[in-house]
Amino acid sequence: MGSSTSRFIAAIPKFVVSLLLVAAIVNLLIGVFLRYVMIPITDYFDWDPVRFTWVEEVGEMMLAWLTLVGAAIGVRERTHFTLHVLHFPPAGQAFVDKVHHALIAIIGAIAAWYGVKLCILNHTLVTPGLEINLSLLYGSVVAGGALLVVYAISMIVAPPAPAPDVADAAHQPPQ
Predict the structure, then answer these.
(1) Paired residues of 126 in beta bridges
(2) What pLDDT is recorded for position 65?
């Protein structure tokens, strides 16, 4: 597989999360507009109220997908919060990082497994407002867990170069 193809495939989760974030913001703005502008207007003119319960359902689904896919991206990009309390030599730190990512992969696999079970269990249920199959909601657990496994294993097999430690950079003489 070519380098550009692998970069394209690696960019898909980031692109999806970006789209979901924009859609979630638009969804939130629509909800605010319907609640604080349209309700007073329909009340004033004594019109039938505008139904907007769907806004919460759509927001809940987007939040689930954003959180779970975004968590996997955070593992791959090494952007999750870390606390450096114990300082190990480079070989020891590499071992700790491998164990750390192995645990993340295990948790991702467990999440994906139970996500599949939830999808199967709830495949006949739908949301009350839009009647969207609940498997779509629980599919976020499957996708996020599977991405966690893939990204965590990739961090074990081909770890990126260590990030420069802020504390070490502070003790370096100016160049």
Answers:
(1) 133
(2) 96
